[in-house]
């Protein structure tokens, strides 16, 4: 049986101030919890139904009923298991190609972007301090487990981009058609805020201005997560083509 203190503790982690104080976050469901355990994240507490435990033996898991899990969960329909993990320290290792998020506010967008980065093998994302918290329950859930494989670093992105000799790419309305540009296999891809795009201070540091062309007079802009997928896909397409040409020469 879960105690009132346990319930209060888990529910408190919905708020950023408590996540920071406890250095902890909540993950739910077999897929997300399973990926985090496989990546050896430090599980402080696991609350699981008999159904989950029948497939996943774990000595420290606390058995709960479906009703108890419902009281802990942030989901409308809880999924067998909920776990509290320690927030990991950012790794010093980073991928050759990195994403930089400049004020991305929506948790769903951030979670989707982390999942997109994982799909395209981009294992490092730098976030401005005003970007949504990657360890909030909504973001963690939206990543569908990809947060276990992507290094999330919050820092001063202006300072980061001011001191790099690598190319800095950014999507801007005055950019050049991305499909007509030669893209490197390393550097930084900056994606901006949902409403305002890339901030003026960061825009000055973009060395390669990209434009995703639209094909008729429709919407003014793309959702930032959709735009991230389009840009990452083109980087990886060109990288694959270059590898094929090198292998065939």
Multimeric status of the protein: single chain
* Computed structural class: alpha/beta
Largest sheet: 6 strands, parallel
**What is the distance, rounded to the nearest whole angstrom, between the alpha carbons of the first and last residues?**
66 Å
Give the overall form: elongated
How much of the polypeptide forms β-strand, as a percent range? 15-25%
Helix content: 25-40%
Major sheet: arrangement of strands: 7-6-5-9-8-10
Q: Runs with pLDDT <50, length 5+?
A: none
Radius of gyration: 20 Å
Quickly count the helices.
Answer: 10
- Total strand segments: 10
Q: Mean pLDDT across all residues, rounded?
A: 94
Helix and strand run: HHEHEHEHEEHEHEHEEHEH
């Amino acid at each position: 049986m879960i105690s009132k203190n346990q319930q209060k503790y888990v529910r408190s982690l919905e708020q950023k101030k408590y996540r920071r104080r406890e250095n902890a976050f909540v993950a739910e469901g077999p897929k997300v919890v399973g990926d985090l355990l496989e990546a050896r994240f430090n599980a402080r507490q696991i609350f699981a139904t008999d159904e989950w435990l029948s497939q996943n033996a774990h000595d420290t898991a606390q058995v709960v009923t479906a009703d108890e899990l419902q009281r802990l969960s942030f989901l409308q329909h809880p999924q067998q298991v909920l776990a509290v993990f320690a927030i990991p320290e950012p790794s010093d290792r980073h991928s050759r190609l990195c994403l930089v998020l400049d004020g991305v506010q929506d948790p769903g967008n951030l979670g989707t972007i982390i999942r997109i980065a994982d799909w395209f093998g981009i294992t490092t994302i730098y976030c401005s301090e005003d970007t949504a918290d990657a360890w909030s329950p909504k973001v963690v859930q939206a990543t569908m487990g990809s947060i276990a494989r992507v290094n999330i670093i919050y820092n001063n992105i202006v300072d980061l981009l001011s001191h790099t000799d690598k190319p800095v790419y950014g999507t801007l309305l005055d950019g050049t058609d991305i499909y007509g540009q030669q893209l490197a296999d390393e550097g930084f891809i900056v994606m901006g805020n949902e409403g305002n795009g890339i901030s003026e201070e960061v825009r000055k540091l973009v060395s390669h201005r990209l434009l995703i062309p639209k094909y008729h007079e429709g919407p003014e802009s793309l959702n930032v997560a959709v735009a991230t997928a389009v840009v990452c896909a083109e980087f990886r397409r060109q990288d694959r083509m270059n590898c094929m040409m090198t292998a065939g020469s």
